Structures are given as C-alpha cells and as structure tokens.
C-alpha cells in the first residue's frame, strides 16, 4: 500500500534494526502506532475545517456586532497582519523544518538524534519568540501611527504581543510530533486553541463593550487579547501531551540505532538552513497581506473619507479574506503532511512513494480548489447575505478574490512537495515574484478612483497566478508525476461546470418560493452532492487510488454494488 507511510517507515526501520536488535524493534513496533499518510491528512483536514468554521463564527459575531462592523474588522485586520508578519519570522517555518529533520532521523532509526533536534530547537526558538513579543509590545505605537496610519490599532498590537512567544514554542512541539508521524497531536492543539479563541472573543468583546461604552477601538483590542489567551491554552495542551509521551520517547531513545552525534551549533544551522527558506515563503505570504494593510487605506484616503477607506479595507481584510481562506484550510493538510512524508521517502531513496504521494495530493487539491473557486464566484452576494446580514457589502471584491483560491491551493501542495524534496528556495522565489507584481498593481490601481479597492483584489489574483506558474514548472523538473491532462484538468472542469449549472438553477428556482438564506443553503448542498456524483461518474479516481484512502476498500465495495465501478 504505497500511501501507508506508517508501514513504509516501519519496514524501513526493521531493515536497519534487524542487524542490531530485532526483538527490541518488535516491541517498539507494537507500542508505536504511527499514523498513515492519508490518515494524518484527513485528521489535519477535519481539524482545519473545524478551525475555519469556528473562525467564521467569531468573524460573523464581530462583523454583525453593534459598534464593531467593517470598521472594527479594519482595525483588527491591520494589527493582526503586523502580528502575523512577526509571527511568520519567528515560527512559521519552524514546524515544517523540525518535522523534516526529525522525520529524516526517525526514518533511519535515530530517535535519539530526532529528540536532540527537538530540545535544541525548543531552546533556540524560545529566545526568538520572546524577542518577537517584546518588539511588537514596545513598537506598537510607531507601527500603528507611522506604518499603518491607523492609530486605533495600537492596542490591538499590544494585546497580541505575548502570543508570538506562545505560538513560536508551540510550533517547535508541533513540528516534533509531525516528524514522528503524529500529526493529529498538533491538529488537536490547534483545534483546541481555536475553540478557546472563539469563546473568549465573544466573552472578552462583550465585557469590553460594556466597560468602554461600545468603543470600536477597545473592542478590537479585546478581540485580539482573546487570541493571545487562546494561544497560551493551545501551548499548554502540547506541554501536557508531551509529558504523557515521555516514557514512550525514552524507550525510543534507549533503542536508537544509527545515532549520529551533531554539535549544538550544527543542529541550529541545520534547522535554520531548512526553516529560513520556508519562513521566507511564509513571510512573502504575510507581506502579500501587509501590502494591502499598507496601501489600501493610504491610497483610498486620497479620494474618499478615512472612515469609508477603513471600512473598505475591513471588507477586504475581514470578510473576504476569511471566506477565501476557508478552502485553504481544507488543503493545508496536504502541504503539512507532504513535508515529512517526502523527506522520509527521499531519505530511503523511495522515488515511487514520492511520485504517488505528490500526484495524489495534487489531484485532490485540484478537486478541492476548483469547485470552491467557481462556487464562491457564482454565489458571492448570496453568501454575504447569508453570513453577514448586517454588513453584506463586498460581492465584487469577493468574486475577484475567489479567483485566487485554485492557484493558492495548488501552490500550497506544490510547496509542501518541494520543501520535503529539499528544493527549499523555489517556493520563496515564486511567491516573492508574485508579491512584487501585486505591490506594483496595488499602488497603480488602488489610487485610481475608477478601480479603488478592487485593485487590491486584482493584485492578489495576479500574485498567485504568477507564483503557481513558477512553482509548477519547478515541480515538474524535480518530481515525476503520474497525472494525465484529462484526469488533472479536463474531468475536474467538467465536474465543476455540471455542479455550477445544477446549483445555480436550484437557487434561481427557489427564489421567491422560500427565503433567500434557505435557498442559498439548499443550493450549496445540491452543489456538493452533484459534484461528488460527477466525480464518481467521470471516474476521476481509479480503484487503486480509492484504496489509498482510509476505508478505501469499503468505498470500492459500495461503488461496485452500485455498479459505478
């Protein structure tokens, strides 16, 4: 079974350990149950979906809350993007880097070396995370007043500053567990963090609203304070889990083979060598968002009132970014799981596994991204009416921005494959090129009164199209794929067109018969059902590919009974 990373790692481990201690290895195999590749992907996928749904819940609450709305989203988003940039520098590349290095050591039986990497990384990035928190705390006034030109965002930055430390150290722990093929641990901690963030956002904002007499500025700061408290609780979960794993980790270390001693400075250099390119890619993504926070309000103020400009940025950075990022949460599981999976396969020189995992992940990414792009484009206004009844402006911005979804999703998966394969700088170069183009388009288009805020959305589309084209070209040069043009492009497009026609016809038929919100919900449900049926009828997946999924044999049996396969 080519997609069961668990079995391949175990087999790889036995080939090495048999020479030294086969009996000990059997005991470890019974005790150590690693997650399969697709099992880990699905766990992380469901976790990310839940996280985004919860994120949507508190976004709905804030946007529709009296005294908050689009202006509050604008203040929140501007402060959050600066926080995200510093967070990116201190932690985003860390989980992938740690998981890559740890998985390479575990693949050859060196669990002691893997744990040593974790300990040194934890100490190093604790210092980096603390520095990031202090920088944001003491620089909040300058950043808000001079950089963002939104003075109201100062307190949102102060409230977020401690979160950088907690997320940074938590990212090291998630990377360690991912490298040991325990992706669900990090997924659970992120889910728990988001649950607390949703609950605390509502509680804290309501308390602040009462105390401040519904001050938008202080309510925005309260919303970001909830983020800080939630990150602390997510980190606490990881610490408690690590303590429960100490005995198992100690056993792994005791039975290590092929231990390769490395100096502390060497390990730090290795971590930075891997994490810096990955971090640079994430920085480019964060800069992409910060370009909007630096250019939208600044340029819109030239021909409209500041409050209106802030509200328009709130639509872009609040509602639209939240909606267009929902599909990315589903797909991020592939990019996360591909890094350690391909790293381990490459360490074993298993090119077949690399091809199969990358090809299958790309196909699923296409099948996720294409219908989400088309669906959000067609139902932009109905979705805004459904979710934001008190602030439903921004349909055209959402339609333009929805075109980024398919390219961003595919780029996510490609970057995970390239990073796992060791081509660390390609994702950075591709996204940096796209970000540069976005910057040029933003400053050119937004200042044009006939285009305005739509220029930022157009810039984002151009950014991700360019980044995708560069990344896919590099992938095809380095990793062999077993995807045909018909399977990867033609059939998914046909399935998506069928879905779009059926769902939109359903929506139009129900208008005037039932309330619009219910018509939207039913149309979306029809879209999902029709799309799944179309995928099966077009036979986009082969029988062998179904078997790569958890419970794949059961799925095939059902399809054979229905005479679909």
Descriptive terms for the model:
single chain; 565 residues; mainly alpha; 20 helices; globular
Q: What fraction strand?
A: under 5%
Shape estimate: globular
Q: Structural class, from secondary structure content?
A: mainly alpha
**pLDDT < 50 stretches:** 1-34
SSE string: HHHHHHHHHHHHHHHHHHHH
Assembly classification: single chain
Helical stretch tally: 20
The count of domains is: 2
* Overall strand count: 0
The radius of gyration computed from the alpha-carbon positions, rounded to a whole number of angstroms, is 24 Å
The N- to C-terminal Cα distance equals 20 Å
Largest sheet: none
Task: Please explain how this structure is put together.
This protein has 565 residues and is mostly helical. It has 2 domains: 473 residues, no CATH class; 81 residues, no CATH class. 84% of the residues lie in helices and 0% in strands. The two termini are 20 Å apart.
Give the secondary structure arrangement, pairings included:
Elements: H1 5-31, H2 37-64, H3 69-107, H4 111-148, H5 154-179, H6 183-211, H7 216-244, H8 246-254, H9 264-300, H10 306-347, H11 351-378, H12 380-387, H13 395-402, H14 404-421, H15 425-445, H16 454-478, H17 485-510, H18 516-537, H19 543-546, H20 552-561
Describe the structure in brief.
84% of the residues lie in helices and 0% in strands. With 565 residues, the protein is mostly helical. It has two domains: 5-255 and 262-483, no CATH class; 485-565, no CATH class.
């Amino acid at each position: 079974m080519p997609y069961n990373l668990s079995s391949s790692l175990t087999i790889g481990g036995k080939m090495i350990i048999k020479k030294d201690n086969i009996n000990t290895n059997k005991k470890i195999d019974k005790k150590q149950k690693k997650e399969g590749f697709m099992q880990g992907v699905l766990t992380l996928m469901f976790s990310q979906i839940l996280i985004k749904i919860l994120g949507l819940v508190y976004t709905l609450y804030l946007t529709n809350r009296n005294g908050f709305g689009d202006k509050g989203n604008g203040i929140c988003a501007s402060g959050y993007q600066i926080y995200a940039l510093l967070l990116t520098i201190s932690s985003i590349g860390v989980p992938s880097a740690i998981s890559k290095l740890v998985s390479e050591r575990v693949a050859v039986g060196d669990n002691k070396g893997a744990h040593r990497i974790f300990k040194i990384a934890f100490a190093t990035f604790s210092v980096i995370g603390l520095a990031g928190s202090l920088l944001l705390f003491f620089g909040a006034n300058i950043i808000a007043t001079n950089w963002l030109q939104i003075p109201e965002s100062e307190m949102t930055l102060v409230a977020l500053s401690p979160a950088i430390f907690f997320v940074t150290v938590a990212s090291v722990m998630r990377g360690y567990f991912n490298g040991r093929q325990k992706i669900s641990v990090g997924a659970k901690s992120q889910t728990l963090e988001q649950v607390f963030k949703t609950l605390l956002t509502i509680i804290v904002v309501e308390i602040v609203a009462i105390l401040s007499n519904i001050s938008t500025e202080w309510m925005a700061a309260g919303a970001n304070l909830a983020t800080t408290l939630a990150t602390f609780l997510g980190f606490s979960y990881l610490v408690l889990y690590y303590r429960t794993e100490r005995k198992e980790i100690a056993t792994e270390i005791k039975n290590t083979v092929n231990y390769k001693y490395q100096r502390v400075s060497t390990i730090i250099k290795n971590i930075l060598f891997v994490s810096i390119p990955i971090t640079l890619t994430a920085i480019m993504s964060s800069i992409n968002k910060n370009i909007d926070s630096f250019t939208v309000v600044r340029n819109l103020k030239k021909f409209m009132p500041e409050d209106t400009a802030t509200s328009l940025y709130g639509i872009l950075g609040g509602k639209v970014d939240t909606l267009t990022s929902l599909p990315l949460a589903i797909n991020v599981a592939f990019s996360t799981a591909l890094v350690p999976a391909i790293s381990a396969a490459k360490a074993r020189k298993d090119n077949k596994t690399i091809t199969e995992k990358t090809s299958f992940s790309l196909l699923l990414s296409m099948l996720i991204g294409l219908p989400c792009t088309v669906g959000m484009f067609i139902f932009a206004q109905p979705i805004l009416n459904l979710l934001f009844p008190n602030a439903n402006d921004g349909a055209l911005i959402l339609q333009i921005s929805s075109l980024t979804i398919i390219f961003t999703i595919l780029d996510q998966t490609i970057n995970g494959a390239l990073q796992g394969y060791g081509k660390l700088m390609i994702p950075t170069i591709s996204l940096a090129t796209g970000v540069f183009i976005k910057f040029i388009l933003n400053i050119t288009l937004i200042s044009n009164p006939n285009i305005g805020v739509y220029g930022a959305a157009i810039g984002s589309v151009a950014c991700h199209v360019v980044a995708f084209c560069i990344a896919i070209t590099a992938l095809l040069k380095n990793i062999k794929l077993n995807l045909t043009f018909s399977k990867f492009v033609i059939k998914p497009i046909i399935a998506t067109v069928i879905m779009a026609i059926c769902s939109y016809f359903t929506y139009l038929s129900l208008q005037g018969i039932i309330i619009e919100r219910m018509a939207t919900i039913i149309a979306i449900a029809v879209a999902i059902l029709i799309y799944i049926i179309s995928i099966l009828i077009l036979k986009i997946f082969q029988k062998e590919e179904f078997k790569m999924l958890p419970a794949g044999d059961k799925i095939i049996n059902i399809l054979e009974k229905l005479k679909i396969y």
